[in-house]
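Help!! Second protein's tokens look totally different from the first
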Amino acid sequence: MATPEFCVFTEPQQGASYDTQLAFAQAAERSGFDGFFRSDHFLKMGDFFSGEPGPTDAWTTLAGLARETSTLRLGTLVSSVTYRVPGILAIQVAQVDQMSGGRVELGLGTGWFAEEHEAYGIPFPARRFDLLEEQLEILTGLWGTPAGETYSFEGAHYRLTDSPALPKPAQDAPPVIVGGSGLKRTPALAARYAAEFNIPFQPEEVVLDRWARARAACEEIGRDPQTLKTTVALTTLGGPTEADVQRRAEATGVDLAEFRAQHTFCGSAAEIVDRAGRLLEQGADRLYFQLIDMTDLDHVAFLGEEVLPQLR
């Protein structure tokens, strides 16, 4: 079994400047996390957070963090196919990968938040899964085109003609993350294009079922299922005492009893280790701890000092 990886996962659209994200990412790096991943959204969700000072662009943020961190994997969970045409996205990701020395990963999905599209004038077609499939083929095709050759593509939604397929990323190809709990098409896309299949915010039985479907999809196309990372993301509230956990719940506007009953990492280090350890035993290659309050650097340190050493 490969060495498991542990990442923080953040939601900056709730209200976090670049400086706040930088301090958080650097705290995660100091605390021993393997990666910093952020959502790619332009509008806050819910009424608890103000969303101020306003949204930050995910790939602009990651470009900055690429120069101000040294070990963290950096990426999105997930960028929406509605935001950027695939040729431009391929250039952005390749450039940030160069800037980071080869530490970038791209999570890509169909998008779902109609209100943010309305707020910023972004087209939001009703049917988006075909866009995702074409973008995945184009991105991997551009990055995989040998130097000196060109890449062309003609689909129902995108057409590229004799692209020089530049710039090249520092990695042979930045790992692509496909996620979601769909029963058929999502596991099939992960098997065909992705380095990682991520299941966010679902009960363990759903996680295990979708992982199994992705492995079966790999076998159907002749891919070794062991080459596809299976991962999970869960919202996290932890602390050395129950009072610490309660304080953090209040700071993020959630009812602790309800939160604890959901599919989360919650409680003391022992409680979090118990649940996380079970997921690792069941096949998780990477765990994402979703942390909402990006000003609470002590939360990051608690996980790094009290939880990660036990899981490693």
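Here's the second one for comparison:
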Amino acid sequence: MALQDGLDDRAEQKLKSRLPAATVARGPRTVVQVVLADSRELYSLIDFFREEGLLVDGICQQEPDLEQAFLKLVRGEDLC
């Protein structure tokens, strides 16, 4: 997710305490990348942005590569 106004250090630490897998990349745009274990974590992430008054500028979903898809199939996991 790209954030419109960035993310300060306090909010980043709060985010990482809520979703430890989250990474933040700062540049021309602040991008938050996180692998979600299930759909409830998506709601938690959106609630966090709302609580902090942060505006989401864009959302991208990364599709698994062929190796990741194969491993998920072998393990009987959902591909999404």
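Reply: Different proteins will give different token patterns, so don't panic. Residues 2-75 form one domain.
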